[in-house]
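Appendix B. One record, verbatim.
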Amino acid sequence: MEESKTLPQSDVREITSEKGKRSFGAKLKAHFRRFWWLHLIFFISSTLIIVLCLVYVAFPRISQDGVSDSTLEIQSLELSNPTANSFHLKQTAKLTNHNKYHPRLDAFNASLSVGGAEDKPYAYIQLPEVHATETTYTHVDQEVQITDMDAFIDYNTQLLTKESVDLVVRGRTKLHEMRLPVTTVDYHKTIHMKGLNGLSGFNVTSFSIKLTPEPDGANMVGEVLIPNPSVLTISMGNVTFNNFVDGTFIGTSLLSDLVLKPGDNNVPMRSTVTQTFVIETVVGKYKDGMLPVDIVGNSSE
């Protein structure tokens, strides 16, 4: 009979330890088998937090940046039917969207003011709903109430006398992009417009003297050239000018129902002048018949 071998106590402990020891990978697998549901909840919660941050934090900022980066250019602007506190506005503007997103903006009420005086809007207009594709044209055709006459006079003065003028458009509207939440954006644009530049280039292109005054009293009739470098069409009514030759007042001229349009305007002129002075000047100093008449605005009705 063989004798049974008895191992030392230290060897038994070593063998038992080696059999009971598990690798890190095995422990990790066992952990996931046991707590998989906890990790799933954590993953879903983390994903939801990220999505919510993108939707409710990042998207409104992206939307506002897109609106701020867009440009607005007035293609045509017509002011007509002026009254003591209103005018009719007809306007076409070009909206350029530099963003890859093409959202829809709701119609909104926008203030109009002169650059440098944004806190004093002279009027408010209703801008239409627009789908902001790469290039979009908007049209406005409405009666506009003047809210600040001093500011409106300042705007018109700058428009008539300066080479350029800044028009500021401000408002707030809702932005829609696919199924994302509707967000509110501020619309704030400064539009650089060409002005009439003091009617620079205004010139009497032809005239003839009537020895017998016509029924309205006119004894000199002719035509004037008025360049308009802007996109503005403006009804000015009956415009009266004072006429001067070499600094001497010679009479007044009337431009009836004057409507200035973009480009060169050739307008009939009817004048009442001191004929003797005009004839003497043409016969004497200006024998070529090219009489340098300086015209200064007097009134508009």
